[in-house]
Write a structure and sequence with these properties.
The complex is a heterodimer. Chain A is mainly alpha-helical. Chain A has 8 helices and no strands. Helix content of chain A is 76%, strand content 0%. Chain A is globular and about 55 Å long. In chain B, the strands form 2 sheets. In chain B, strands 1, 2, 3, 4, 5, 6, 7, 8 and 9 form a 9-stranded antiparallel beta sheet that branches. Chain B has a 3-stranded mixed beta sheet with strand order 10-11-12, with helices on one face. Chain B starts with 9 loop residues before the first helix and ends with a helix. The relative contact order of chain B is 0.09. The chains are: A mainly alpha, B alpha+beta. At the A-B interface, helix 1, helix 2, helix 3, helix 4 and helix 5 of A face helix 1, helix 3, helix 4, helix 5 and helix 6 of B.
């Protein structure tokens, strides 16, 4: 069991960490939270909990734990990675890279323009979670997840089509 | 090629590419896609946007978000610490694993999809139901003449009293109670109103609703709607409003706080002993500690559990609609009742847990869903619908005629989905009724007290009434179409059941038959259709109705349980 959790930790920790950053956690807190979540997973498995999809479980627990951590850091601003500045930073690149970067910048702006719930559903879906799992993480129904995703994808499609 | 009305909505396509549609719906979509270029193109575009999302995840989030500030820790030392602490726990706690089996095991993936569809549908609709019900109740209040004075009884864990509320003028509440209402962001001037509840509910950033039908808590006669809204945020854990079904008048409300305090308020119906034209609160027994509300009743711990305890647990689950599709199993041993659930969402778990918390000798165990495994780390949106059953020539012919009858393919799709939805409601009610019948067979009822028998009877009656209304609606939708296909109803032998429990068994069998025939008729399941299929369906539904009538009749004869 240790090996299983250790392997999942190695495979998924960066994904969970990035997810927590998008939730507004500052990097040190996000990293700490990731470790706590995996230890929680190990404890639950050890206690005999039947976890069918550990990765989905990890994201669900990370989301809820992340919200609590964010609430505790309420006296400071949520973490803002300032992606726009990072994306537009000058770097030696080919013309193709520049076009691609422009495209991704447009896409990023569209993602930023999504509602919080749309964004949460999209990010969790991008991590491979199914609608019921996303729903249970966010406390909404699976069909509401479907609706948020539909709206998100339609809005992103407009940018993508341009 | 096809008219616009035929095209599938993008929400459906989205769920299709995400593999989130029930198998039969997925098959319908697949079938449509084979014929429709436009929808196929639409799907390609959705997939392309999904692919763009993945590029964004990889090349933007993956590259530009800051790396973790420290190297990742080696968790093995922590694992060892956890090993030590867990091994210190009692042995039975470690080896216990909830049984992940449904009482109603259904065959095959299609059947599993049906169960999922029922669950999702039930999980899906309550918020809409609650909002719609409240809207109707607010409108009904506005259209009613205003009562000059209403007497509302308030109960908390430490006091109970009655307050008169005159139109628009409310007497002041004790300060502590007023503070509680404020803390809850719930209007205290007329709490027992749909408007107050609606405003409270609307203000919640996150909520989950349950709508169920319960017996009138005051008079125990007639039915009421019970709207239960729970939330993870704020000081209030949940709020409940009970509305009379006949006129949507609120009869009882309950606010449950996270610190286990509660405020219950209900219409005070006893004849007033004081003047009724005053707005002054008549605080009757402020110093007398009140008993907790009936739903929170704390019974002294008992050594062994009885069939009556089991009934109470089922009744509690029934009140929150957890007997209609939630994957929950109740098992009774000599000293404990175990309620186990598989794949129950967290908020639902909390609700069930809270509902059963105060009951002695009840253990609640939940485990994660037995779902199709997700490819770890995979972000591709691969649909996994099973293959479309190859329709026989006769099925196709019946389908074509059905299509003509209802007015085109788009109309047939709507018709199919509507009928399947109604059928799912039938199945969930029939299962709930059968569960009661199985758990409390005729002989066992004698072990129940008169009150228990009444409770059992009420629960069974509620299922029967709801089922009866659903079957009527099914016949209303179905029969004209089937008659158009040459379907006729023949008289069938009536059920020979001699107790409502055996009749409930007949009801389950009949509802299964209806489901199978409907699935073949609508082309969502393989089958051997005969030319008599339309008549068979009509007869199966009539038979179901007759069995249900027999069940209802026997229940009434047995004095309501």
């Amino acid at each position: 069991m240790q090996a299983l959790v250790a392997q999942l930790f190695e495979e998924s920790r960066d994904d969970v960490y990035r997810y927590l950053l998008t939730l507004g956690l500052h990097p040190p807190l996000a990293q700490e939270a990731v470790q706590e979540v995996f230890l929680k997973l190990y404890t639950s498995l050890k206690k005999g909990e039947d976890i069918q999809n550990p990765r989905g479980w990890v994201f669900r627990v990370a989301h809820n734990h992340g919200l609590k951590v964010r609430a505790r850091q309420s006296n400071e601003e949520p973490f803002d990675p300032n992606m726009e500045a990072r994306l537009t930073a000058p770097a030696a690149s080919t013309e193709h890279d520049l076009i691609e970067r422009e495209r991704m910048l447009g896409f990023h702006r569209a993602v930023e323009g999504l509602s919080e719930q749309q964004k949460r559903c999209l990010f969790l879906r991008m991590e491979g979670m199914r609608y019921p799992e996303i729903g249970s993480a966010l406390g909404i129904s699976a069909s509401a997840v479907g609706e948020f995703l539909r709206r998100a994808v339609l809005r992103l499609r407009k940018v993508h089509d341009v | 090629m096809s008219d616009f009305a035929r095209h599938l909505e993008d929400g459906l396509l989205m769920r299709y590419i995400d593999g989130e549609l029930p198998a039969r719906k997925a098959r319908q979509v697949e079938k449509h896609l084979q014929a429709c270029w436009q929808c196929r193109t639409e799907i390609e575009e959705l997939k392309s946007t999904v692919a763009e999302c993945i590029r964004y995840r990889k090349y933007v989030l993956g590259v530009h978000l800051p790396d973790p500030p420290h190297p990742w820790a080696d968790l093995s030392r922590e694992f060892a610490r956890i090993d030590d602490s867990v091994s210190a726990e009692p042995f039975f706690a470690r080896i216990f694993r909830p049984v992940a089996s449904f009482r109603w095991s259904l065959a095959g993936a299609a059947a599993l999809a049906l169960v999922c569809a029922v669950i999702y549908q039930l999980r899906d609709t309550p918020s809409v139901q609650a909002a719609a019900l409240l809207k109707r109740a607010v409108a009904a209040t506005a259209s009613r003449p205003v009562k000059p004075v209403r007497r509302i009884r308030f109960r908390t864990s430490s006091q109970q009293f009655v307050r008169n509320i005159a139109a628009g003028k409310a007497a002041a509440l004790p300060q502590s109670l007023e503070a509680r209402f404020q803390q809850a962001h719930y209007a205290s001037n007329d709490p027992l109103s749909a408007r107050a509840f609606e405003n409270f509910r609307d203000s919640l950033p996150q909520k989950q609703d349950e709508v169920s039908t319960v017996a009138n808590p005051e008079t125990h006669e007639g039915n009421c709607y019970r709207i239960h809204t729970s939330t993870d945020t704020g000081d209030v854990a949940s709020a409940t409003l009970v509305l009379r079904t006949t006129d949507l008048v609120p009869v009882e409300g309950l606010l449950e706080f996270r610190d286990n305090q509660f405020i219950e308020f209900s219409e005070f119906t006893e004849s007033p002993s004081r003047s009724t034209d005053t707005t002054i609160a008549s605080v009757e027994t402020p110093e007398r500690p009140a008993v907790p509300p009936s739903r929170l009743a704390v019974a002294p711990p008992r050594k062994s559990v009885s069939i009556s305890d089991e009934l109470q647990v089922l009744s509690a689950l029934h009140q929150i609609g957890a007997d209609l599709g939630d994957p929950i199993q109740v098992t009774r041993t000599a000293d404990q009742i175990t309620v186990s659930g598989v794949g129950v969402p967290p908020q639902r778990r909390q609700l069930i847990q809270r509902k059963l918390d105060s009951m002695p000798n009840v253990a609640v165990q939940f485990s994660e869903p037995v779902a199709a495994p997700v490819l770890q780390g995979s972000t591709s949106a691969a649909p996994a619908p099973s293959g479309t059953p190859r329709p026989s020539a006769l099925t196709s012919r019946i389908q074509n005629r059905l299509e003509e009858q209802v007015g085109g393919r788009a109309a047939l799709e709507r018709f199919t989905s509507q009928i399947l939805d109604v059928n799912e409601t039938v199945m969930s009610r029939a299962r709930a009724l059968r569960t009661l019948a199985e758990r409390f067979p005729g002989g066992d009822e004698t072990q129940l007290t008169a009150g228990d028998r009444r409770l059992l009877g009420e629960m069974a009656r509620e299922h029967i009434n709801a089922l009866s209304a659903t079957i009527r609606s099914l016949q209303h939708d179905l029969n004209p179409v089937l008659a158009g296909l040459g379907g006729v109803t023949a008289h069938r032998a009536v059920s020979q059941a001699n107790s409502w429990q055996t009749a409930a068994d007949d009801v389950t069998r009949a509802s299964r038959r209806v489901e199978v025939l409907l699935s073949v008729l609508l082309g969502v399941a393989p089958g051997q259709p005969s030319a008599e299929l339309p008549s068979d369906v009509m007869n199966a539904v009539s038979e179901l109705r007759a069995d249900l009538d027999r069940c209802q009749q026997l229940l009434a004869q047995e004095g309501g349980g």
